[in-house]
Write a structure and sequence with these properties.
Blueprint: E1 3-7, E2 10-12, E3 18-25, E4 34-39, E5 46-51, E6 57-59, E7 67-72, E8 77-82, E9 91-97, E10 100-101, E11 105-109
Parallel strand pairs: 2-11
Antiparallel strand pairs: 1-3, 3-8, 4-5, 4-9, 5-6, 7-8, 9-10, 9-11
Length: 111
């Protein structure tokens, strides 16, 4: 059974950083590219970026520079490193591959 479980969200102040994690199980983690999505409150999810099975990354243009995606195949984990967080980064963050989704982890950026 394929599972994706996100963690690492929380309440932070503007300018702070967070590292989100997505742990995969039930499939050969190292053989798949994975995506991160952001779902702002009351809106649909938007693609943030992707890391392929070779570790190559791609990002939505406005995310580049603040957000970095990495993976540790030994831990079956993909990470989203978020720096200089802004209030508009608030929302649910979800990982995905093919038609598999995690439940998401909530990030709130507020004074």
């Amino acid at each position: 059974q394929v599972q994706l479980v996100e963690s690492g969200g929380g309440l932070v102040q503007p300018g702070e950083s967070l590292r989100l994690a997505c742990v995969g199980s039930g499939f050969v983690f190292s053989g798949y590219g994975l995506n991160w999505y952001h779902q702002p409150p009351g809106k649909g999810s938007e693609w943030i970026g992707r890391i392929d099975d070779n570790g190559r990354t791609g990002y939505k243009a406005f995310m580049r520079g603040r957000f970095t995606i990495s993976r540790d195949n030994a831990k079956n984990t993909m990470y989203l490193h978020m720096n200089n967080l802004k209030p508009e980064d608030t929302g649910m963050y979800l990982c995905n591959f093919d038609d598999h989704w995690g439940q998401g982890t909530q990030v709130t950026v507020s004074e």
